[in-house]
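**User:** Once you have settled down, spend some time on the protein underneath, comparing sequence with structure tokens, and judge whether sequence predicts the tokens.
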Amino acid sequence: MIHSFIAHTSPGRSRVFALVRRPGDELEAVATLGSADLHLTGELVSALNSFLYDRDEKALGKVLDRVPKAVRMAAQQYLRDKCAPVMGAFTECGPVETVREAVYFSQIDDELEDYLEGAYTIGLGIRMSNERKSDGGVGWVIQLLSEEVSVPASAEPRTWAVPAGAKLLKTWTSQQLTGGAGPVRSALQVAEDATAQDRWVRIHTLLHSPYDIDFEGSGTSEFVVDIFDAPIPMEHPDE
């Protein structure tokens, strides 16, 4: 599994490596930038690290279009060979195990808030979304995972990929907290307000690292609320 991308820079060149976790840490060469392109090193490494976590090919492509063709081809070949998506329960980068099957709540209330507070306190990952019931009401589906996933500083605060074709209207994170409400209560209030406008809402948690490399296990725990420009989806008939 690729943990991160790093670079070693000397006056004449920058060599970009992938830090690979096997059982031990190993470095694999990815590409080399010449002296005329050293200024692109940091941007390239940040884009590669972001790609590990959001799989945003367009964002990566904008950076690769600025580096020499040989570097672009080498990076693209490495990603094709070594960085295929590894779909986990919660993030594309490294499986995170489900520790509790989906739980259904018929409304946002004290019981739901206590449930999330308990999971958050012991460091479990949270994934929650709204759905329209057959009687017209709105329910909430919550899944707990074995841990919160870290994202690097330069990446978007997201460990739950935006579905293909979905238009993201707004993303709120608990870094935007004001007043005395805690992250759980604040996230639920944002979700409840958006639901009242018939918006599809998803909530998840993550560790937002201050670093782009060697960030594993470090960071600030955050709640993220994604609000989509789409109506609340109907519940699955088998649930």
Q: What stands out?
A: The radius of gyration is 20 Å. Confidence is low (pLDDT under 50) at residues 86-95. The beta strands are 2-9, 13-21, 25-34, 98-105, 125-132, 138-145, 150-151, 168-173, 200-208, 220-228. The longest strand covers residues 25-34.
